[in-house]
């Protein structure tokens, strides 16, 4: 068994690196797009400074629509878009397109939920003294939700690791692809066992790191 692990170590290293690329890109896109979407879902609620029922409903429907599609179906559905965007439908970069699309609404809902924990009286007081919406978002909403945003990013990262394993079923690369090619198609139990252990260790590390950072920034 040890000899087999040493034999596949180069491929395992490549697969691990591809998984990190996929998850990293997905997280970055979730932060760049999902965070603003989540804030918009919150501030367009009734009683808040950008109250807009139509905008919130439309945005909410789009977010819920994407979230309701099982990832493996979303992966296949986005193949033409992926091919158009990156010029291929296989590999880590291609798989990161679907991962990013799945991550945006997932993280957006977490951001919205974290923002709802803020005492609305604080926001109302800021409005009363003439604070602009952008100032309220920058100086009240984001700082107050920081621990929740980090915890949400941790949850998103762990979910993306699971999704990245699914991407391996269509040649998306990463640890999931290695497990499918060797562990499943070739009935190689050593590869399957090793990839599972690697994924477990990766998830535990991310969870620990995320919890540690969230506790560090939590000033409450």
From TrEMBL:
ABC transmembrane type-1 domain: which residues? 16-210
Q: How does it sit in the membrane?
A: Multi-pass membrane protein
At the top level, the lineage of the source is Bacteria
SUPFAM superfamilies from the xrefs?
MetI-like
Query: In which broad location class does this protein mainly occur, judging by the first location in its UniProt entry?
Result: membrane
Q: Which PROSITE patterns match?
A: ABC_TM1 (PS50928)
Keyword Protein biosynthesis (UniProt): no
Entries under InterPro entries matching the protein:
AA_ABC_Transporter_Permease, MetI-like, MetI-like_sf
Report the family membership: Belongs to the binding-protein-dependent transport system permease family.
Q: Tell me the protein's name.
A: ABC transporter permease
